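Progress note, project year one: complex with iron/sulfur cluster.
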Amino acid sequence: MSGGTDLLRVAELFGPTLQGEGPSTGRHAVFVRLSGCNLSCSWCDTPYTWDWSRFDRSAESQVMPAEDVGAWVAGIPAELVVITGGEPLLQHRPLGVLLARLTASGRRVEIETNGTVPPPRAFPAEIVYNVSPKLGSSGVPRARRLRPAALRDFRDTGRAVFKFVVADEQDLAELCALERDCDLSPVWVMPEGITRDDVLAGLSFLADHAVARGWNLACRLHTLLWGDTRGR
Ligand code: SF4
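Model obtained:
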């Protein structure tokens, strides 16, 4: 029987599908999306995980034992498991139970995080972090969205990549300063947008900046393929 600390609040489980963002773009993957976030980005593409003024929490999330989530994942034949949200590290204790099961079974696990919660020391060493700190276009006050000490902790794991949604020139300038001040590497940039046209326009805007600054450029493959359809 699962103990109370092993309960996860889950927004959705889906897959197999394709990872749409970051270094693993295009990889066959299964997704675990957890509920709850400590930020409130204006362009958030998953507000149903945290914005309870617009969405019904009881309808949009369910409480599940971590073991049950692991059993569901075990039935999906995808080597890569993406843990996302919301902000999944807000549930780091029950998440650790799930991660232990997944890594023991040989799955590769990536955690997508906004970088405000430091990487828990108790997590398995194999976990890869896709850290996505939020820039000014998110509309979130800087002191809430950027925690330099936590970002350096992620950097020091040696298993983190830093992935930024860049919407405009102000975001570019803020990213340059943050990259320098926190010595972040590798850096990936990707456009903001939940439509194919917005993503393609953003990629055009970012491409030359990425080349000039030594950054990697990521698209939103799932948006190009399926728009803002949930569960893809
Ligand atoms: Fe949405 Fe991510 Fe921002 Fe949370 S951190 S509000 S999930 S974009």
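The CA atoms of residues 121 and 157 lie 10 Å apart.
The longest strand covers residues 7-18.
No further modelling is planned for this target in the current period.
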